[in-house]
Each structure stands twice: as structure tokens, then as C-alpha cells.
What does this fold into?
Amino acid sequence: MATLSEITSLCKRRGFIFQSSELYGGINGFWDYGPLGTELKRNIRQAWWRDMVSWHNPLLAPAGAPAAFAMVGIETSVIMNPQVWKVSGHYDLFQDLMVDCRETKLRYRYDQLRGRWAEARGRKIFITADPDAEDEFDFVSRRASKLFKVPTGSPELKWASDFMSLSQIAVEDFVGVLAPQAQAPGTLSEPREFNLMFKTYVGALTSEEHAAYLRPETAQGIFLNFKNVIDSSRVRLPLGIAQIGKSFRNEITPRQFTFRSREFEQMEIEFFCHPSTSEAWYRYWRDRRLRWYFDLGIKPANVRLREHDKRELSHYSRGTADIEYAFPFLPAGDFGELEGVAHRGDFDLRSHMEGKLDPNSNPLLVERDSAGQPRWRGSGKNLAYRDERTNETYIPHVIEPSAGVDRALLAFICDAMQTDEAPDDTGTLRQRSVLRLSPRLAPVKVAVLPLVRKDGMPEIARDIHNALVRHVAVQYDEKDAIGRRYRRADEIGTPLCITVDGQTLRDNTVTFRNRDDLSQWRVHVNDCEAEVRRFIGA
RNA sequence: GCGGGCGUAGUUCAGUGGUAGAACAUCAGCUUCCCAAGCUGAGUGUCGAGGGUUCGAUUCCCUUCGCCCGCUCCA
It folds into this structure.
């Protein structure tokens, strides 16, 4: 399989992906799409939108679906009322305080590091536990006896406190804190803020009361408009609302080409249904979304569906599955997330009604501050749904398939990139670089080529090109030998070539040539468009 | 954010303390009746950016930006 540098150099050489602001040395975590990349990306969005939204038939239950359902699309703003992110939980979650260990270079979440004070041989040290330790009591005991050089369980070692969070310890006292993997105390930095949301200011004044955030996901825009859509669109549950749009996250370490970017595009559906049917809908969406990648030509061997186990799940969720791809730049056996399909229960709608819910409470309760008030106040609006046929009112459960456009594009390119062998005109096998993209996704569907640049062939080929140009993405190429033109088409994934040759002059047929198996067949000049459409399935 | 490596033409790379080359790609022409053929010709780089040392820096030093790898992070 291709390496990351082979992928990035092909993407640059052929105009799929460039580094953003490359002229000025680039900017970490941002990417531009070139002419072919833009077409490919549009085709991915279009395939998703058609398959999920515009080609959806609300009168028939799709294969495997529990029932027929409605599906509409919306497009919401990137910047929203900041309260949205407080209620959604992103504000708390994305403003993590971290501490770094200067000795081991390890970083810990400030609120996750726990430990207890230990006293021996005249020294008092706060011994922290590794957050991943199976048994923090055991971990801390062993660390303490090693530090003080006393046997475990020795009466010399006294515990001066119970377990407590590092955040309860003053920063001045960090000199007496032993980090989980450090040899000596006092190696932890002061807690530092890592704000993962992009902050901006609305209006001309740069003051905190005008602060706002670029959305870190498109989903919240859908939740906020659930009631608007219901009230305006004559749709009933079960209902999917879809959106494609940009999102922004201040990733600490953008890496791996476009896989982890700070500006990225999402294709998300929030699917609203009755709580009693939500598990069946969850399974339906999980399986359907996985199949979508297969239908667009991703090799099943490179994809896996990873169901989160019970410990990873919030208790309110009946399931979350990641659709993952074996990106060639990841270590062998590792997969990277393309899409997450999550059963979110009524967490989001209820949070926007009542105030931010505590995801760890069971049953779900509004998170309160010390005064007993909601930590983050909800809208107070009623987002319950009334089924007018059964007269039942309920808060819908939500299934959320959330896909990354840029990640899908990268996976499609990685999966399609191949080097195989094809004979040259002397019959010897030569390396051929070919992009086996699905015809639906290919940026160029067909290349029209005169076999040689004489005998009127270019004129006929131009006529064919001109007839196709309003209907399919077509390229005309008369430069260089025919074999070289085929290879150029192969390298950018053009699935079909139409060649005007000597026989065309006699009987008005042209040669169609298939990118994948090099097969050829003849088609009448007047039937070119129909044949292209048949082949690419559009 | 930490540690390591790297940055020369569109791409892959060579090279030198005296301002740069190859292959492929690109463009033009000739030739060419089916899979990267041949011939002729052309263009391309402020050697990532800024500063320093030096008579002189792409080359040595510092800073910075970017890329890759490992940690960390990844709702």
C-alpha cells in the first residue's frame, strides 16, 4: 500500500490537495483542495446528499429499515449563541486544564489526576496515581514505598490524607507532588488551559462579552432547529435532518495530512425517533452507513466497524460504533475514524430544554452549581414531540451518524491508489499508476482522445467532447502518444476513455476503454452520452 | 507542548563557502492507427523565511515556520 509521502506527492502533483498558504510557509492544520480535489470532494458530498437526502423516498421503508421515514436537509450558521456550547458540554470539555511532567514529558488532565499525601522520614509528599492504573490505592502504595525506600505496609509510612484531586492542591505545593511516572517530586507544571474551540468576537468590540466560538461540530445546529423543522415542514417522526458544513477544532497536534485538521467538513444526520424504536434505528443506521462506503468502492478488508464497549459508552447511549479505515500512514493494525454512529438518547434535546445534563448521572439530571442552579441554563423551550396520530408526547431519541468529508476523501484516495503493470507499445510490462475511484466519485468521468492528430480525428473528437461537456465531467486530450494519454487518465482516476480512430472515419463508431481492466468496445458516435451514463451509473 | 529527523524546479532527488543540476512531469513542433515510443526545442527555482559570521552563505551558526516520526491529545 502507498506511503503517506506517496499520497501527499500525488495529491500535490495532480492538484488534489495543497498545503494552505504554502506561499508563506503554510499553516499547521489547514489544507486547500486543488481542481481535482475540489471535484472529488463535491462528488463525495453529492453522493452522500443524494443517497441520504434528495434520493430518499419517504413513502417506502428502505431495505433493512424499521419503517418509512422522512429526511430533510438544513444548513446552519458556523457561529451560534455561545450558550449552545455551554449546554452541549463542549465548553467544559474543550477547555481542559492540563499539567505536564517536565521529567517524563507526559501530560495529564488536571481534573483526572488523583493522589494522596504520604509522610515518612520527615518528608510529606503528594503521591499521584496513573489515571490508567487498575487500582489507584495499590499504585500509590507501591510508589510511596519506592520513593521513601520503606517496605510496603511499613508503619514508617503514614497517609496524611485520603485520595483527592490534584486540583485541590495549591500550585505552590506542586514541589511536593510526585507525578505518576516520575522519579522525583516537583516535576509537574502549573495547570495550563488548552482551548479546543476557536474563539472569535462578534461585533467590532474585542471584549469577553462579545466572545463567540466557531462550531466544533455541525450537530448542534440541527438540534437547535429541530422544532423549526417540525413546525415548518409538514414532516413527522421518524425524521432525519441532515447537514454538511465546516467545523473547527484547535487540535493540539494536527497530524497525518488532512486526517486531523483544524478546519474540516462534516456530513451529519440527527435521526429523531420514538424511544422504543431507537435501538432498531441505531442498528439500521450503523449498518447502512457502513454499506455506503462499500457501495462507493472502499475495499471491505480496509474497513472495520468498531462497536464501543460498555465502559466507553455513556450510560444513556444504547450503542456507538465507529466506522474506521486502515489508513496506510497508521501503524499496521491501526485504524482511523471515518465516521461515528452514536445512539444519543434524549441527552441533547433535553439539555437544550432544561440545562446541561450531567452525562454521568443516571437517570440523567441537570448539572447543578453550588447554589443548586443549573450549571448551564437550557432554553426553557419545550422540544418534546407530539404524535398527532397517537396523541402521545415524548422527547425523541436521536441516532447520530457523523462523517468527516475530508477523512472520507483521504480514505477514497488511499484505497484507490494502485500501481499495477500494463504493457507498453513494445509489449514489455511497465508500471502503471492508477486511481481506481468509483465512477460516481471520479473527478473526470471520461476523456475524449483522437488516436492520432491527423486525418480529421481531432475534429470528430472535439465534437464528441463538445456534446458531452454539459452532461458529464469530460476532458479532451490530443497531446502525446495514445498510451501516455491513457496513463494520464488512469493516474487521476478517469474511468472511461473514448478514442476516435481509423474505424470511426468509416463507420462512425468509437472505442470505449475501461480504466480498470483495459478492455475496449465500440459504441456509435451518437450513443456516447448514453453509454457513459450507463457505465458510470448516473 | 516535549524529543528526534527533514526542508534545493511541479514531483523524486543530487550538489557546492564563489548566487545551482539530473530524471520524470509540463509546454511548443515533427513523427505516430491503441496502452508512459522517438526526434527537436522551451520554461521553471529569490536552494522554506528572517537574522548572524564572512570580502562573499543554498552550504556554517541562531531564530522561526512547515512537514515526517515518537510521546501527549483526539467530545
In short: The mean pLDDT of chain A is 87. DSSP finds 13 helices and 30 strands in chain A. The longest helix of chain A spans residues 35-54.
